[in-house]
UniProtKB/TrEMBL annotation, chain A:
Domain of life of the native organism: Eukaryota
Keyword Secreted belongs to the record: no
Positions of the UniProt region annotated as Disordered: 60-79
GO biological process: autophagosome assembly; autophagy of mitochondrion; protein modification by small protein conjugation
Biased composition annotated in UniProt, kind: Polar residues: 61-79
Species: Echeneis naucrates (Live sharksucker)
Record's signal peptide: none
Protein name: Ubiquitin-like-conjugating enzyme ATG10
InterPro entries hit by this protein: Atg3/Atg10 (IPR007135)
Keyword line: Autophagy, Transferase, Ubl conjugation pathway
Pfam families linked: Autophagy_act_C
Gene Ontology CC: cytosol
Membership in a protein family: Belongs to the ATG10 family.
From TrEMBL, chain B:
Family: Belongs to the ATG5 family.
A single GO cellular-component term on record: mitochondria-associated endoplasmic reticulum membrane contact site
Gene: atg5
Organism name: Echeneis naucrates
Residue ranges annotated for the Autophagy protein ATG5 UblB domain, each copy included: 184-269
Ranges for domain Autophagy protein ATG5 alpha-helical bundle region: 120-174
Lineage: Eukaryota, Metazoa, Chordata, Craniata, Vertebrata
GO biological process, one term: apoptotic process
Protein name, as recorded: Autophagy protein 5
Entry keyword Ubl conjugation: yes
Automatic annotation (TrEMBL), chain C:
UniProt-listed SUPFAM superfamilies: WD40 repeat-like
Family: Belongs to the WD repeat ATG16 family.
UniProt region (Disordered), positions on chain: 211-275
Keyword Coiled coil found: yes
Protein name as catalogued: Autophagy-related protein 16-2-like
Biological process terms in GO annotation: autophagosome assembly
Basic and acidic residues compositional bias, start-end: 211-222, 253-265
Keywords: Coiled coil, Repeat, WD repeat
Biological classification of the source: Eukaryota, Metazoa, Chordata, Craniata, Vertebrata
Gene from which the chain derives: LOC115053306
Start-end of Low complexity biased regions: 241-252
Species of the source: Echeneis naucrates
Chain positions of WD repeats: 325-366, 369-401, 411-452, 469-491, 551-579
């Protein structure tokens, strides 16, 4: 299974290839080294016009006709039977973060939180605006996988909250993130910068990369792990990877 | 090992006397009294400050309160670090009690994570445990646990139940005897000298030659500056849970006993103060007084 | 990877430096002397940390929080009252009152605050003090720790020395063991050598003895042959024959003085050569000599007396009667050869003792000893053959000298007839037995009874040997007495009335004759009831005083029967060796075997005495 996990050197190598392609294609990926260290990360900034759906997640799901059957499971993450324990936990945590309302405990705190959230949501409701996205690709030595960090701010420089980010994700992906073990979005500290970023959690990366890599291996096809992975997780958070990367490659 | 169990208890029940004062700029109805609290070192700021919030709520209007955040001498305190780490990293040489300023405005979005509810802390905590287990056992132990086991870990921490937590955490600290330790030691080395918040790399408890790695060997690899050269004045303190373990302490033992509940060994490297020990230092390190 | 292989000492040095600030006391022993130093360090530091950061503030914070709650409560009430100032004047006074009370509470609380702050100060000073004490104790601990370490080193050193000593000791022990083994081996070898030596010596001694014996036997046999030759030559000259007899006597004398030195032997030879001319002088000298010797030791005398018997290794079983004569006017009760075998004494109911010279197969009357008023029952020669002791029916015992017919001594005291009188083993003492059931010991010098022993029964005969007296009784018992203590040592049973006793020349065997017509031979050394019985068809014990004898070589027994025949048994096989009939016409009362083994004399109740020999 050595081929299914990524080591640091391979990561660096993949990144370098990606950078070369990016240069050729005029994409704006760049390598940012960290001071006093060999570590670094790939960075790309992009401006996107995004419509932020401010409705609570449950409402959103209801409005989407093809998601109808999932209504019940979305009403409470605890009853998602079709998930594994592991993913259920993550899912539930994730769901909690996104919805921000928990009935069982800490009512008061949550009430406060709700207030703030509601306010922001109201402000952004239905509006479409230009947002600045900053994507970072880092290597997680714990999971031996690449991790996508990103943050979003308005042109005025206000950072988006997790709820807003969630709202910016396309509804189809939103469901995907909820029900599949692929990944999920949480707010985390950037391990190299120490700043608050959003992150697609890498703990399942190996699981979904393995079949791909094996297939590639079976067909004796060279694979750029980082590129392949990015093409899968990137679109979720608005990072589209051009097909040209793959055709060139 | 009665000693070891004692160490676990001492680590768990470590407390920091803290004085919470409201930021001067906050709009209050009247002067806010400071609030004093013994903060558990292994817990998280946002998990144990409900009372603080409640206290300041008395003098403030509801509409003036946004998300509460904390600051010490100009540094926003990251709630997602264990309290002990925050103290050791930023305030280990301070006069006790630790004086924290409470803010309800101008949340520093760039620096701090949002913490709208305890479930965020839980998610963060469990995520840390998972990452640590990915390092220690390739996630095998944590994946074999049931959801209620995860809940037990979290509830143990939330309610300050040592036995409840350790009944489950014990499993996470096991390792095959023949390997002499975990696969990798989950550790983070914090320092305040650069932007990079912490160092986290792969490091095994036993060297390829079969020698046991110690705290010293870890630092030599990760942060050589922390180890004073021979005859040179010591420039840094290596602090874990408010103490300075000897450098020959085996890393595996440290990981098992001095890790935080999130299963990471958080090591703080603090620049040593050159001025003569202040009274606070006397209090923090009372043995200094006995030195000739 | 180089950084991973940190040299331990470097780490130690660093750790020592690291620990320096917080715990200088521990720094010197950070070198891994104790594996758990780091752990102890951690435990202690954690305790210190809790002390300074936790415990100190615990109470303080609790107090503060309580106080805070109280004040906030008070403030809340205050603000409440301020916020709603009542228009009602009546309530104003109550509010004022309330205000007063609250102010009072405030005062109290303020006082409490002051007090608490005071307490805090006190506690802090106490804490400070404890810290100093702690530091002091830690210093002490370090001192003690060093001392301990030093002592441990000493202990190790001493242990090492001990080990060395032990090793040396073991070596020495091993050497000693080896030496002991060698010693044992040597001893065993020594024992073997000693045994071999003893064996060789024994063999040598045996060979020497054998040679000596052969030589002496040859000499004796030679002598005997010469004697016999001389006897057979029937030299008519009387003096010749007597001189030859005397030669035999002098031979015995020579044997007597066997262990005397050669000079003395030469003297006796001189005497012997002189004896041819003056035999009397020889006799007198011999007597003197014997007496002198007897005065010294009785035992040696007796041994000396036995010597001629030893010459006579084989007694000759008599085959024919050499002479028959009517020796007394009445029945003869006793007969006895002298120890030199050249004299026979007979005693009879006719109250006299007759001495007969035995010469060339015939008895010649030499002398008659009278003095007894009743019949004679028993006769004995002393070892010199010079004195004759007799027991008499007249309740006395009499002592004669050979050349005097008048008794030298008459021992009176018994109340009934005296049945036996014998010379004791001690000089100048005789023992008598009597029908009055006593055994008496007499001193010849004083002619008086010195000891009297009461016996349960009639004493028929007695014999003496060294230190003991053996008596036969009518109650079918043989009693052995300790002559010194005069107490009965042992009782031997017999089949009937004991008529006579005889002791072999070596004093080992005791012959008893009983009225059940059986002779009994007891080995005295055995101290047991193991005995040999001798019977023969036709043998009948004729009277209560029939006397039987052992041959001088202890090989044969002889006794006279009521039918007038003499019966001779082989002592070792208990078979009848010979029966000599037809010479006596009445019951034989006594027989005597010469010490030379040549002759036997028998006497009967019809006055007849018969001399027997094998030729």
């Amino acid at each position: 299974m050595s081929s299914c996990v990524l080591d640091k050197e391979t990561f660096r190598h993949c990144c370098q290839l990606l950078l070369q392609l990016s240069e050729q294609l005029g994409d704006c990926w760049c390598w940012v080294p960290v001071q006093d260290s060999q570590d670094g990360y790939l960075r790309k900034t992009a401006l996107r016009l995004v419509t932020i759906d401010s409705r609570p997640f449950g409402d959103q799901a209801e409005s989407s006709s093809e998601l109808g059957p999932h209504n019940s499971c979305l009403s409470g993450p605890d009853v998602q039977q079709n998930d594994q324990d592991q993913s259920a936990l993550i899912g539930s945590a994730n769901g909690d973060i996104i919805r921000g309302d928990i009935e069982d405990q800490d009512n008061k705190d949550n009430r406060d939180g709700d207030d703030g959230e509601d306010r922001i949501c109201r402000m952004c409701e239905g509006s479409s605006q230009v947002l600045q996205y900053e994507y970072h690709i880092l290597f997680s030595c714990s999971y031996r996988a690449p991790v996508l960090y990103f943050r979003v701010c308005t042109l005025e420089g206000r950072s988006l909250s997790l709820e807003e980010v969630w709202g910016s994700i396309h509804p189809n992906f939103r469901l995907c993130l909820q029900t599949s073990p692929f990944t999920m979005v949480t707010q985390q500290e950037h391990p190299l910068l120490g700043q608050a970023f959003f992150m697609l959690h890498p703990c399942r990366t190996e699981d979904f990369m393995r079949p791909l890599l094996q297939a590639a291996q079976d067909q004796n096809r060279p694979v750029n792990y980082v590129l392949t992975w990015l093409s899968m997780v990137g679109p979720v958070v608005g990072l589209d990877v051009s097909l040209k990367y793959s055709t060139q490659f | 090992m009665a000693d070891d169990k004692d160490v676990l208890r001492d680590v768990w029940f470590g407390r920091i006397p803290t004085c919470f004062t409201l930021n001067q700029d906050e709009v209050t109805e009247r002067e806010a009294e400071p609030y004093y609290l013994l903060l558990p070192r292994v817990s998280y700021l946002t998990l144990v400050t409900d009372k603080v919030k409640k206290h300041f709520l008395k003098v403030m209007k509801q509409e003036d309160m946004e998300e509460m955040w904390f600051e010490y001498e100009g540094t926003p305190l990251k709630w997602h670090y264990p309290i002990g780490v925050l103290f050791d990293l930023h305030a280990s040489n301070t006069v006790l009690p630790w004086s924290i300023t409470v803010h309800f405005k101008n949340f520093p979005d760039r620096d701090l994570l949002r913490c709208p509810s305890h479930s965020v802390i839980e998610a963060h905590f469990m995520s840390s445990i998972k990452e640590a287990d990915a390092l220690k056992h390739k996630s095998q132990v944590v994946n074999d646990m049931q959801k209620k086991d995860h809940k037990q870990l979290w509830m143990g921490l939330q309610n300050d139940k040592f036995d409840q937590f350790w009944a489950m955490n014990r499993k996470l600290m096991e390792y095959p005897t023949e390997e002499g330790g975990f696969r990798y030691i989950p550790f983070r080395i914090y320092q305040t000298m650069s932007d990079r918040p912490f160092i986290q790399k792969l490091f095994r408890p036993v060297s390829p030659e079969g020698n046991t790695h110690t705290l010293g060997s870890l630092l030599k690899e990760m942060y050589p500056a922390a180890i004073p050269n021979e005859g040179q004045q010591k420039r840094y303190q290596v602090v874990i849970h408010g103490i300075e373990p000897l450098l020959e302490t085996p890393l595996q033992w440290l990981s098992e006993h001095l890790s935080h509940p999130d299963n990471f060994l958080h090591i703080c490297i603090v620049r040593r103060l050159d001025e003569p020990p202040s009274p606070s230092c006397l209090l923090v390190f009372p043995t200094v007084t006995s030195a000739p | 990877m180089a950084a991973l292989t940190v040299k331990p000492f470097a780490v130690i040095a660093e750790s020592a430096g690291q620990a320096e600030r917080s715990s200088r006391v521990l720094a010197p022993m950070g070198g891994g002397r104790s594996l758990e130093t780091w752990k102890r360090h951690i435990v202690r530091q954690l305790k210190d940390r809790d002390l300074s950061q936790h415990l100190k503030y615990q109470d303080l914070f609790r107090f503060y929080t309580r106080l805070l709650e109280k004040t906030s409560l008070a403030k809340g009430m205050l603000s409440c009252s301020v916020r709603h100032p009542s228009t009602n004047s009546s309530t104003i006074s109550s509010l004022l009152h309330q205000n007063n009370q609250l102010q009072k509470t405030m005062g109290e609380l303020a006082y409490q605050v002051v007090e608490l702050q005071h307490q805090i100060k006190i506690k802090e000073s106490v804490l400070e003090e404890q810290h100093t004490r702690l530091g002091e104790q830690e210093r002490q601990f370090t001192g003690v720790f060093y001392a301990c370490q030093e002592l441990q080193e000493q202990v190790e050193q001493v242990q090492g020395e001990n080990k060395e000593l032990k090793r040396e000791y073991d070596a020495v022990l091993e050497r000693q063991r080896g030496a002991e083994t060698r010693l044992r081996e040597e001893k065993v070898r020594e024992g073997h050598l000693l045994e071999d030596m003893i064996l060789l010596k024994k063999q040598a001694a045996a060979r020497l003895n054998c040679r000596n014996e052969r030589r002496s036997r040859a000499r004796d046999a030679n002598l005997q042959k010469q004697l016999q030759g001389a006897a057979r030559s029937k030299v008519t000259v009387n003096i010749e024959s007597s001189s030859s007899a005397r030669t035999s006597g002098s031979t015995s004398l020579k044997k007597e003085n066997q262990d005397q030195d050669s000079t003395e032997r030469r003297h006796t030879r001189l005497f012997r050569s002189a004896s041819a001319t003056s035999p009397r002088i020889l006799t007198s000298i011999r007597e003197l000599f014997d007496r002198k010797r007897r005065g010294h030791s009785v035992c040696s005398l007796e041994e000396d007396l036995m010597c001629p018997v030893r010459i006579c290794l084989s007694a000759r079983v008599p085959a024919r009667a050499l002479q028959m004569l009517d020796a007394h006017e009445q029945g003869i009760n006793a007969v006895r050869f002298s120890s030199s075998s050249d004299m026979v004494a007979t005693g009879g109911t006719d109250r006299v003792i007759k001495l007969w010279e035995v010469r060339t197969g015939s008895l010649t009357h030499k002398a008659t000893l009278d003095g007894s008023t009743e019949g004679i029952t028993c006769i004995e020669f002393d070892p010199t053959g010079y004195k004759i002791l007799a027991a008499s029916y007249d309740k006395s015992a009499l002592l004669w000298q050979r050349d005097d017919s008048v008794p030298k001594l008459t021992l009176t005291g018994h109340s009934r007839k005296v049945t036996a009188a014998r010379f004791s083993s001690s000089p100048h003492q005789v023992v008598t037995g009597s029908a009055d059931r006593t055994v008496r010991l007499w001193d010849l010098h004083r002619a008086a009874c010195v000891q009297e022993v009461e016996v349960a029964s009639f004493c028929s005969d007695l014999v003496c040997c060294a230190n003991c007296i053996i008596s036969g009784h009518y109650d079918s018992k043989i009693r052995i007495w300790d002559s010194r203590a005069a107490s009965c040592v042992q009782e031997l049973p017999a089949q009937g009335k004991v008529t006579s006793l005889d002791l072999s020349t070596d004093h080992r065997k005791l012959l008893s004759c009983c009225r059940d017509d059986c002779l009994q031979l007891v080995d005295l050394r055995m101290w047991s009831n193991d005995r040999m019985c001798f019977r023969a068809e036709g043998f009948k014990c004729g009277s209560d005083s029939t006397k039987a004898v052992i041959s001088p070589d202890s090989c044969f027994l002889a006794a006279g029967s009521a039918d007038g025949s003499i019966y001779i048994w082989n002592a070792s096989t208990s078979s009848l060796e010979a029966r000599l009939p037809d010479k006596h016409s009445s019951s034989i009362s006594a027989v005597s075997w010469s010490l030379s083994g040549e002759y036997v004399v028998s006497v009967d109740k019809s006055r007849r005495a018969v001399l027997w020999s094998d030729i």
